[in-house]
Amino acid sequence: MVDDESKPVVEAVGVAKRFGPTVALADGTLTVLPGETHALVGRNGAGKSTLVGVLTGLLKPDAGQVRFAGRPAPPLGDRVAWRQQVACVYQKPSVVGELSVAENLFLDRQPRGRFGLLSRSRLRRAANDLLESWSVPVDADTPAKELTVEQRQLVEIAGALSHGARFVILDEPTAQLEARAIARLFDRLTGLQQQGVTFLFISHHLPEIYEICQRVTVFRDARHIVTAPVAELDHARLVEAMIGDAHGLVQVGKDRPPVPDEAEPALTLDAVGVPDLTEPIDLTIRQGEIVGVAGSAASGKRQLAEAVVGLRPRTGRVRVAGVTVRPASVPAALRAGIGYLPADRNADGFVPGLSVAENATMTVADRLGPAGVVLPKRRDAQGRRAIADLDVHAAGPHQPVGELSGGNAQKVVMARALARDPRVLVLVHPTVGVDVRSKESLLGVVDAETRAGRGALLVSDELDDLRVCDRVVVMVAGRVVAEHGRGWDEATLVAEIEGIGEKHV
Amino acid sequence: MSETLAVGAPEAPQRPPRPTGRPSKRLRLARLRDLALVPPIIALLIYGYTLKPDVFLTKSYLVDTVLKYQTELALVVLAEALVLIVGKFDLSLESVVGIAPAVAVFLVVGQTSMLGAPWPTWTVLPVALAFGALIGVFNGLLVVRFKLSAFIVTLAMLIALRGLQLAIVGGATISNLANRIPTIDNLGSLRILTVPLSIWIVVVAFAVGVVVLGYTRFGRSIYAVGGNADAARAAGIRVERVIWVTFIVAGALAALAGLMLSARLGSVAANQGNGMIFTVFAAAVIGGISLDGGKGSLVGALTGVVLLGLIQNVLTLAQVKPDQIQAVNGLVILVALVLARLTSGKAQD
User: Fold this and answer.
1) Pick from A94, A358, A365: which is nearest to B5 by CB?
2) Which ranges of the sequence are coiled-coil (chain A) (predicted)?
C-alpha cells in the first residue's frame, strides 16, 4: 500500500442496520489490515451480507462508522469515490453477458478516439493491458457470457482494481468452483496479495480459510464475536464461535449400522445412461443404504441423478423396489417413490414467492384434499410438520421461502423431497451454500430417514457429505471408476475425483 | 435477459431466521394487498356523488351505468390474469373477443352455406366458446411445444385474427342479433333478481376463479409455474400442461366476453374488441398482477376493473369533452398505477 502502512484499509465500528422489524446487523465491527487476506465467517443470517452492503456503500447504516485508510467513508451517492476504495465480487455475476470482456471492464468509461467517439481499438488495448498487468489469462474480446466462473471472477477483480481500489471483497468465490479451479484461484489471490491487494474473504468452507487467510473475524446473530489470527483459532474454536455453543458439531453418520447383506434393493439402475454424457451405469442402492456419487462437474454425476428422477431422457432401466419407472417423467418417478432434491435450490428447488407450506407440499398436492382440491388446513398442517421435523427457522407456514436464509430454504426443499414418503431419496449437492449448523442438520435428516429403511443416492463432491454415505462411487467422464466402503482415504478419493493417480481409461 | 445483472448489484441482505411477526398478521397484510384499490374506489364514488348527488349512489345507476359496461372487460381481465400469473402473455385475447362471436354468429345468420350453415341458433354459445378455446390450443401449441415467445406469438395471432374477422364480417356490422338469436337476446337483456345476467356471469366466473386458484391443485400449480417453472417441474408439476390449459381457458373466457359484448350491443362489429388489450393490462397491473408471473390475485384484478370503470364514468360525468377523454383516461390510468404502487408499497414488474 502507498498509504500509511499502519492504518487499517477498512475499519467498521459498531455498524447497525435494521430492515423493518428485523435486525440484520447489531454490532458490525471489522478491521482489515493492509496486505492481509482477512476471512469473514458466520452462519447464514449472521449479518455478513449486510456488512458487505455497508462496506461497499450500497446500504446506509443506521448507526456506526466506516473508515477507509483512516478517512471517513465517502457519501452514499458518490459511487466513483466508493469504487476507488472497495469492490466486491459476488457469487452472482455482475457482468453484462452480451458484451465483451473489454466492454465490461470499461463500462461507462470507454476510451475515446477521434471526434469523441468510442474507439474499439483503444478499448481493446486498454483492456488487454489491464488484464495483463494483473496476469488474468483472458482475451479481452471474449463475450462475458462465455467466461467460466473462475475467469469471470478474475475479470471482475481486475475491473475493481482498475478503479483504483486495492481492497476487494470476495463473497463465497469458491462455492461454484472445482478443486483444481480453487487451487488456481488461490494462487492468483496470493499473487495479487503480493502486489499489494487486500482481500476480505467470505466462505463457508473453513479449510480454505486456514489455507489462504491470515486473520479471521467471526459474526454470529448479527454481532461481531471475535477477530484473531487464524493460527490462534483452531477449527473447533472457530466452529464454536460461529454456532455459539461449546459442544461443537456432531460427525453425522459415524454410528450408522452396517447395511445387512440381505437388505432388499431400494433403487436399481440397470445400464442407465444419459445420452452424450454418461456411459451405461449399473448401481444398486439397498434399503437403509446411502450411496454417495462423487466426481467433478464434468463427470456427469448430476445429469445421471436428473435422469433418474425423470428430468432428462435416459437409456436403460430404473427400478424402485423392483418396479420399473417410466423414463423422462418426473410425476412417474415421484409416484414410483423417488424423492428429489435438486442441485441448485434457487434455480429449481423452490418458488420464492410461495409459502413454506406450499413449497413443502408441492410434491403431494394431490393428497391435500379430494378431487384436485387443496385444503389450506391440511397444507398448513403439513407445512408446520415440516417446519418442526426439519427445524426450519421460519415465522410460520405462510412465510414466503424467498425470505428465508439459504440453510432454511434448503430444509424446505428437503421437506418437499420427503413429503411423499419416498422409498429412495435422490439428493444433489444437498449442503451447497449452507452454514455448518444447517449442514449438520440436513445430513442428520438424511441419516435418520435412511435408518427407517429408505435408500438414498447422494450426489456431491463435498467430503463432509460423502462421509455420511455407506458406500461411495466415483465417476469420471461419465463412468464409474472406483467404489469405496466406509473409511475411505481422503487423498485417494480426491485424486480419483480429479482423475489423477488412477488408471481409468 | 437474466444474465444482464446490474453492475455491482448486491445480493438481497439475508434476514436472520428470526420470526418477526405472527402468522395471522402476515396473513392479514397479504389480504390487505388485495384491497389496496378500495380507498381510491371510495374516493371516486364520493367524487361521483358530488357530481350527480341525486342518482350516482343508487343501485340502478351503479349497476346499469357503471358495472354493466365493465362486464366484458372484467372477463378478459380474468383471462389475462390467469395467463400472466402462469408467467406468459396473451395479447390475442382482444381479437378473440371479436372473432369468436363473429364466427359463431356468422355460422347462424351469415350469408353462407359453408360447413352446412345456417346452423341452429343454439350453437352460438358453444361454437364461440369452442372457437376461443381453439385459439388457446393454437397459442399453447406454439408457446409450449415450439417454445416461441408468448408475446410475439400472441401478437401475431392478434393481427391474424383481426384480419380474419374483417374477412368474415366484411367491413360491415352483423346487427339486429337480439331478434334473431335467443341466446344473444338472453345474454343482453335477461335479469336475475333485477341484476343483468352479464354481471352474474362475471360474479360467478370470478368466484370460480378465486376458488380454483386458491384451493385446487391446478390453481396452485399456476402460481408455482409462474413463480419458478423449473422448481415446479422438479416437484412433478406438468408445467407444459398447466400453461397450455391456462391458454385454453383464457381463450374460452375471452370468447364468452365477446359474446356478452355482442349481446349488449346487439351486433358484431368488424372492430369489436379492438384496442381492448391495453385496458386489460392496465386493469390487471393496477390490480396487482405481476407481469413477471407468479404474483397477484383475482380479487385485486377485479378491483382494478371496477376502478377503471368508475374512472371512465366519472370522466363522462365531469363533462370531459369526448375528443379529450382518451388522453385524460390515459393520464388517469398512469395516476392509478402510481397510486397502486404507493398503497401496496411494492414494486410493479
Assistant:
1) A94
2) none
